[in-house]
Specification:
Largest sheet: none
Structural class: mainly alpha
Helix content: over 70%
Shape: elongated
Number of strands: 0
Radius of gyration: 19 Å
Distance between the termini: 57 Å
Length: about 110
């Protein structure tokens, strides 16, 4: 039973990591390219680390905290670094390929 769970976690992690890496390579805009490593790849690496923690916890008769700490660190730092990269790009006025939304001048602001 544990082998099936580990296999599913590894397969899910590999798929998410591949999709995130593919998004990083294929997307054309900085802002859309930022989503690949911060969303999909983080989930993929998280699944792989959880699978590793389960495997070594079952095999060594003890809780493997190294992988849990790395997963926690990854889930905390990835959104923060993506936020800082996006703010820096906005500060440097990096152009986006998405059209700017038009302002509606008929209605007064709230």
């Amino acid at each position: 039973m544990i082998d099936i769970l580990l296999s599913l976690l590894i397969l899910t992690g590999a798929i998410f990591t591949f999709v995130g890496s593919l998004g990083l390579a294929r997307l054309r805009d900085f802002y859309t390219r930022l989503h690949g490593p911060t969303k999909a790849t983080t989930l993929g690496v998280g699944c792989l680390l959880i699978a590793s923690a389960l495997f070594f916890s079952v095999r060594d008769e003890g809780v493997s905290l190294h992988e849990v700490l790395v997963t926690l660190f990854l889930f905390i730092t990835a959104p923060v670094s993506a936020h800082l990269l996006a703010k820096a790009a906005l500060h440097l006025k990096v152009k986006s390929l998405a059209p700017t939304p038009a302002l509606d001048t008929d209605t007064p602001p709230d």
